Amino acid sequence: MTFNNHSAEVYIPDNAKKGSVVYLALAAHQDDIEIMAADGILKAFNRKNGGFVAVVTTDGAGSARDGIYKAYTDDDMMKIRRAEQKKAAVVGEYSALYLLNYQSAAVKSPKNIAIAEDYIKILKKHKPEIVYTHNLLDRHDTHLGVATKAVAAVRNLPKADRPKRLYGCEVWRDLDWLPDSEKTGFDLSANENLLAALLGVFDSQITGGKRYDLATQGRRLSNATYSASHSVDAVKSVSYALDLTPLINDVKADITDFALSKIEAFKKEAESKLKNVLQG
C-alpha cells in the first residue's frame, strides 16, 4: 500500500492479532489512541478473532517536553514517539499500526485531501465494523482536522463498505456534559492493568511534563461515579463518545450543524431542569 506522504510507515507487531479487523482508530497523535479508543483495544484483546488497527496521523514533532526530554529536538521527539507507539502496539496486540507522519498544519488545513485519501485506503483494506476518532467538539484543532477528515473518508466509501459505527471520543474535552441520550458510554472496567500499561508506555509525555496516564484514568473513574446520582456505581471505569454514525448514513448532513445540535440539546436540558426547580 502506498500513501500520499512517502514517509508513512506500517508496523506489524510480532504478536499481532490475526484474522479480520473489527475495530480501527483514526487519531491525530501518538497516545491519543490509547486514551480515546480503549474500548476497541480491550474488545479486540479479549477476542480470539477480531483485531484492532491503529492509525496515527501526525509526526509527533510539536509535543510538550520537559525533564530528561527538555533538550530533545523535534527530530528526536518524532523518533521516540514513534518508538513508544510501536511499544503500545505490542502491549495491546494490535493487528497493525499506521504512522502517517503528517505535520499538524496539513491535518488542520481544509484544503488537504491527501490525508482523507490515505484513510480511505486503510479503511478499504481492513473493512472495520467499528471506527473511533476524535469528537467534533474537541478543543484541539488538529483533533478536529482528523475527525472531519475521518467523516469525509468514511462517506467516500461505498455504502456497503462503511463501518457500522463511527464514534467521536474524548481526549481534549470531556463529554460527560452531554445529555445521556446524546452520548455513548464504554465500560472500561475490564483489564485495567492493560490500559494502565498502554498509557505508561508514553514516557516522553509523562516524564516530559504531561500526566496523561493519571488524567485519563481519573476521567474514566469520574465518568463512572458521576453517571448516576441515585444509585451505586455500576462500573468502575467509563469513557464517553459522540455517535457520529448519522453523518455517514446521511452524507449530505452538515457536520457543523450536527455538532452544534448537541450543544443545543444540552442547552434545552439545562433550561428544563432550571425551570423545574424555579417554577415547578
Structure, described:
This protein is of the alpha/beta class. The protein has one domain: Rossmann fold (3-Layer(aba) Sandwich), CATH 3.40.50.10320. Helices cover 43% and strands 16% of the residues. It contains 11 helices and 8 strands. It has an 8-stranded mixed beta sheet, with helices on both faces. β3, α3 and β4 form a beta-alpha-beta unit. α5 packs across α6. The longest helix has 25 residues. The chain is globular, with a radius of gyration of 19 Å.
What is this structure's SSE topology?
Blueprint: E1 9-11, E2 21-27, H1 32-36, H2 38-45, E3 51-58, H3 74-91, E4 96-102, H4 104-108, H5 114-126, E5 130-134, H6 141-155, E6 165-169, E7 184-187, H7 192-200, H8 203-206, H9 212-225, E8 238-243, H10 245-249, H11 255-279
Question: What structural category arises from helix and sheet content?
Answer: alpha/beta
The termini sit apart by: 62 Å
Counted by DSSP, the helix tally is: 11
Which strand order do you get reading across the main beta sheet?
Answer: 1-4-3-2-5-6-8-7
Percentage beta strand: 15-25%
**Order of helices and strands, N to C?**
EEHHEHEHHEHEEHHHEHH
CATH architectural arrangement: 3-Layer(aba) Sandwich
- Overall average pLDDT: 94
The total domain count is 1
CATH C-level name: Alpha Beta
Portion of residues in helices? 40-55%
The CATH homologous superfamily is termed LmbE-like
Number of strands: 8
List unreliable stretches of 5+ residues: none
Q: Examine the coordinates and then state which fold CATH places here, giving the name of the CATH topology.
A: Rossmann fold
User: Tell me, what's the shape?
Assistant: globular
| Sheet of most strands | 8 strands, mixed
Indicate the radius of gyration in whole angstroms: 19 Å
